[in-house]
Design brief:
Number of helices: 7
CATH architecture of the largest domain: Up-down Bundle
Number of strands: 4
Bound molecules: glutathione
Radius of gyration: 17 Å
Helix content: 40-55%
Structural class: alpha+beta
Shape: globular
Largest sheet: 4 strands, mixed
CATH class of the largest domain: Mainly Alpha
Oligomer: single chain
CATH topology of the largest domain: Glutathione S-transferase Yfyf (Class Pi), Chain A, domain 2
Length: 200
């Protein structure tokens, strides 16, 4: 059976979370580097694969093309076991809760501020102050949760941890100081160990 192919930009947390899930589940895959900054998501060839013009994009073993990082994580976790998605329907819904929250209330602020500051080198004066405010609110929400739970969705390590660690571990590059969030910081260490990825 052929391997997966993952199109991704190795600077992107959305892409790395898909890669880490493949690694964690010990799946064979080939990585194709696509540079967002160089416009490679907007070439006719790439748009033919993903009309949304975004990475990550997973090509399944059957040749299906799947976009949206958290959909990719769920597909892999449900296809290959590994305990990354709980069997109990309420526990599973709590994992979905955090995955949806990540895309709506975390990534749009923390990842976007990091992109503007770290990659586009924008000075703070040119960055919408709402990104800092809403990013800090997201980290505060995680701090409350992780002060009372080992993993983000409760007792078990799940795709929600993989999803949320991607931009949380890189938050300092967006000007967010994780020292103000000790439970989040300790959780980042635990997830990095679990995924066997070095700290940033
Ligand atoms: N919600 C999507 C976001 C994907 C996304 O924004 N990808 C960025 C890189 S992190 C991208 O490909 N941007 C290129 C573009 O929009 O042209 C996901 O979770 O996969």
């Amino acid at each position: 059976m052929s391997a997966y192919r993952l199109y991704g930009d190795s600077r992107s947390g959305n892409c790395l979370k898909a890669k880490w899930t493949l690694d964690y589940l010990e799946q064979r895959y080939e990585w194709t580097e696509i540079s967002v900054l160089e416009g490679e998501t907007r070439t006719p060839e790439f748009l033919a694969l993903n009309p949304a013009g975004q990475v990550p994009l997973l090509i399944t073993k059957d040749g299906g093309a799947l976009a949206q990082s958290n959909a990719i994580l769920l597909f892999l976790a449900e296809s290959h076991g590994g305990g990354l998605v709980p069997r109990d329907s309420f526990a599973r819904a709590k994992v979905y809760e955090w995955l949806f929250w990540e895309q709506y209330s975390h990534e749009p602020f923390i990842a976007v501020r990091r992109f503007l500051k770290f990659y586009l080198k924008k000075p703070d004066s040119e960055i919408d102050p709402k990104l800092l405010e809403r990013g800090l609110a997201a980290l505060s929400r995680m701090e409350v949760q992780l002060a009372g739970a080992k993993w983000i969705a409760g007792d078990a390590f799940s795709v929600a941890d993989i999803s949320l660690v991607a931009y949380t571990r890189a938050a300092h590059e967006g000007g967010f100081d994780l020292n103000a969030f000790p439970a989040v910081k300790a959780w980042v260490d635990s997830v990095e160990k679990r995924l066997a990825i070095g700290s940033r």
